[in-house]
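Model it.
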Amino acid sequence: MLTRRYYQMLVATALMMVTLFGCGREISVAPTEPEAFAPVAAPAVENAPGILIGPIEDFTTGWHNVDGTTMFRVPRGAALRFKYALPQGATIEWEGASEEDRDAKSSYAVCTPDAADELAIRVTVSDASGNLAAVNECNLRIVDVTPTDFAELAISLQQARPEVTTYATNLETMAAWFGPSIGDIVEVGHNHYRTAVGLVIDFSSNMESRAAGSLMEWRVNGKAVSLGRTDQQTLDRAGANVISVGPPSLAQEIRIDTYRVEIVSHEQDETVLTGTPVTYRAVTHPAGFENEIRWVASTKNGNAYPTIGKGAEFTTTFFDTFGPDNFQWLGVKAGNAKRGQDIAMRDLCDDLCIGCGNAKTDYQANIGTGGATVLSGSMMGGPAGQSAANLGELIEKICAAFDGTNKIDVFYVAHGSSGGINVGTGVAAGNATANNAGTRIGTANAAWFRDQIKNKVKKITLFGCSTGSGTDGQELLDTIAEPGLEAVAYDGTVCDNGTADGGFAPAVGSGAVSGN
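Modeled.
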């Protein structure tokens, strides 16, 4: 589900991405399967506003914008044709070129410069009432250049944005998720490559002559797209694409086959729990390139491990993804495909509970957002065999889950109140004795309880109503928590008639508890 947080992050991340563009990456080699790809239809060439210069014989094939301050070089003696879009009823005056034709939308002008010099082409446009509407100018430098100057052309390419690494920050992984494709560029033969659709690719040529640079035309599937020594393209449709550059008679060409990635294991609105490994699967269209799929996992808060992966499947675990405002964003991306989750804690509670009434007895068995080991009081629903009748049984089950080496996370579900959480048949006013027979964890026995679990537990989440609220709630958490042991709890009701209020109280003597 998508909320306003999604769109706020999208805008913020777009601003961050400005600083994240960088250099290219090494290209790997793999076999080619050209029969899997059909040619892609050529993109349409936009008629940009301003002065356009038309095809120049032996050099270019399309119309290109030359309006502005850049000096545009043209060959001496070439017949040059210009175009300018006109509003209905407008008039136009050309300087430096002579109008030769006009249709319902545009005026056309020509000139044939012979001297090696500079030439300014200017248009002055008036609207139907005779008022000045626009003045545009382009600057030309006439040079001695021939198509043979392009005889040694070569094309290189690279991904326009840097790869995400294992050590990427949250900002970097979010920029990758919200940005274009993260596909690999795979070299499959001489001047033949393959990647996922949507990848932004930088192309460059080895042309060094400034005189020829502005006459170097780039074409995608036969259609002119730009002029210059470099170009950037995003190939958005799956199929075979031909990129060419230079005069048509001496053009250099490369082929890029593109496939589309689809994540097939998760629907967009499927809830992903944190603290538990989750496996995503993807396929390619056309099929057969699943081993080339690149994955990135991202969170706004907390982290995901592993961050990157490759292949048809990707397993990652998200940790501590809820921020101080009790909102969460997490997601994975595979090539051009992505799945995200942007929810509030109250929405997650709704997903994890079934008809949660005041008794809160209908929790799903897989509730585990706070850790891998899920335990519950005997009055609460939960995993079979994981309920505890008293403190002794609860501690025993925690010890049983500990493997003797790696400390565990515990997610304990039970009824709670300020500064305490029930065990077994305990009640809000019940005992909090420091022994195994106790039926409540409270401020009176928090230190004793901590000493029983501290060498086995890394984090304990007390999922009970208002357990972390008020002075007593903070005292409870501060007493349980110590270096190497984190304690968190709710400071409001949890899943009460389908609602969730409040959030986690901070641990380790952090001062005031955040509340609603």
